[in-house]
Design goal:
With 490 residues, the chain is of the alpha/beta class. The protein contains 16 helices and 22 strands. The strands form six sheets. Strands 2-1-3-4-5-6 form a six-stranded parallel β-sheet, with helices on both faces. It has a five-stranded mixed barrel with strand order 18-19-20-22-21. The chain is globular, with a radius of gyration of 23 Å. The two termini are 32 Å apart.
Length: 490
């Protein structure tokens, strides 16, 4: 889709929540682009404003309510402006959003985006607002290649929906049941991203990628094998798996293939078997620990990240202490940590009282964050003196004189740009690999010096191909913890 426009077909999309929503926003932009719309970077320049929303926690709802209230003045100034709410919050609340006194013309769930451009046109021609929140058993948008590229990185959705029904999670009610996307379209999208957009790394997305299945003949590991064999992508990541059915042969593939990044985001959620049972997670503390042991046996240098919820209904101090113990034993590189937020429609809302006081939730969250922060910082300190292969992504947030990238296990690394290099030069380096010697660290970042004379940027194409054949499994250069990617609710 074109950027900017002087026409009356200008679209502004604002995205909240996980990578799946980012991907869906790319689908929306593509659909509107096919109807002659162009994207703009500010709501003040738009004729159509769409908020793609999240429903996983109450705070996500509150942010959208506040954002809609802030758009009231634009609606009063321009009554022809169309404002729509998309995504999981739209699916969750549906028609109720029209009765809240907010400037909302359109409410649309995530399985209904094909209808979105026409519904907007109907509103703009005076046919009134609309709500469409039906769930589909088949929609995967497989032939639509969205605009979801950030530099040399991209997301690719491989499946939609979830069948796990964790008691705290609203996703099965907002995104429907599981359905897998045709593997041919996935492979084609990845290769198109490489050839047409210079993408070097893709993250394969699913609410539970372990459940990917196509006609009983292809599982998730088989899909990854096809992407490795049939595309020129340099790196593959994925999120998120579920601990209860994580397949051993997927771990074996990860251990064998250098292009398959050495990072697993494995949601724990709680360290107490009793709490996990109430969460309907289908695994125990012991089985989770055994899986972590298997992972580290096959991939000693793996970057392991997780999600944790504190204050779930009925959680005692002793059960919270069990979570702290698992965190200590598993040695996660990073964790997304939250206090429990009761959600409408979920099994937990129906079965359990939200009985852990708010101050107790906050105290437990604070203690958990302190513990994980200390563990993560110590793991970073152990990296000083080693070296890592880093995919160059862009400039550091603090200085354009420093560039940044990630190890294959997801750790953020910052290093000085080559002598005399400009911002314009970065485009020729972006998406290439360079070895960085780690000299210092913070709690979240490794810092070092790049070996520019040995960088992929300075190699011949033939030598680049030869170097990509196998994972370096034993050197300190591959002992990278992960700084993690944004998590899907699993």
């Amino acid at each position: 889709m074109q950027e900017g426009s002087t026409s009356a077909n200008r679209l502004f999309v604002e995205t909240y929540g996980c990578q799946m929503n980012e991907y869906d926003s790319g689908i929306v932009k593509r659909l509107f682009g096919d109807r002659g719309y162009s994207t703009v970077q500010s709501e003040f320049d738009a004729d159509v404003i769409l908020l793609n929303t999240c429903a996983i926690r109450e705070k996500a709802h509150e942010r959208v309510y506040g954002r809609l209230q802030s758009l009231n003045h634009l609606k009063r100034k321009n009554p022809g402006l169309v404002i729509g709410v998309l995504g999981c919050m739209a699916q969750n609340l549906g028609e109720d959003l029209h009765g809240m006194g907010l400037p909302v013309d359109l409410v649309l769930g995530p399985d209904n985006y094909r209808d979105l451009p026409q519904l907007v046109e109907d509103i703009r021609t005076g046919k009134g607002g609309a709500t469409l929140a039906r769930l589909s058993s088949s929609e995967t948008y497989e032939e639509i290649e969205p605009e979801v590229v950030s530099g040399c990185l991209a997301f690719v959705t491989i499946m939609r929906g979830c069948d796990n029904f964790c008691s705290f999670c609203v996703v099965p009610f907002t995104r429907g049941r599981e359905r897998s996307r045709n593997p041919d379209s996935i492979v084609q999208e990845v290769q198109n991203l490489v050839k047409n957009r210079n993408v070097a790394e893709v993250t394969l997305l699913g609410q539970n990628v372990n459940s990917y299945k196509m006609d009983d003949s292809l599982d998730f590991a088989g899909l990854v094998r096809r992407v490795l064999d049939e595309t020129d992508i340099k790196r593959i990541r994925f999120t998120s798996p579920h601990p209860h059915d994580f397949p051993l042969h997927l771990l074996e593939l990860m251990a064998e293939e250098k292009r398959f990044c050495n990072h697993i985001h494995l949601p724990l959620q709680a360290g107490s078997t009793e709490v996990l049972t109430r969460m309907n997670r289908d695994y125990s503390r012991e089985s989770f620990m055994k899986l972590v042991e298997q992972i580290r046996k096959l991939m000693p240098d793996v970057g392991l990240t997780t999600d944790i919820i504190v204050g779930f209904p009925g959680e005692t101090e002793e059960q919270f202490q069990e979570t702290l113990e698992v965190v200590e034993q598993c040695q996660f590189d990073m964790a997304y940590m939250f206090k429990y937020s009761e959600r409408d429609h979920t099994l937990a809302r129906k079965k359990y009282a939200d009985d852990v006081p708010e101050d107790v939730k906050l105290d437990r969250l604070s203690r958990l964050i302190a513990s994980q922060t200390s563990l993560g910082a110590e793991k970073n300190r152990k990296e000083v003196g080693g070296s890592h292969e880093v995919l160059i992504e862009g400039t550091s947030k603090r200085s354009t004189a420093d560039w940044m990238g990630r190890t294959d296990s997801g750790k953020v690394v910052v290093f000085p740009a080559p002598d005399g290099a400009t911002i314009q030069d970065l485009d020729t380096y972006r998406g290439t690999l360079v070895t960085v010697e780690i000299q210092s660290c913070t709690q979240a970042t490794l810092k070092g010096v790049a070996r520019w004379d040995q960088s992929e940027h300075n190699q011949s194409p033939d030598s680049r191909t030869a170097d990509a054949s196998a994972r370096p499994g034993t050197s300190k250069e591959s002992e990278a913890p992960s700084e993690g990617m944004a998590s899907l609710p699993v």
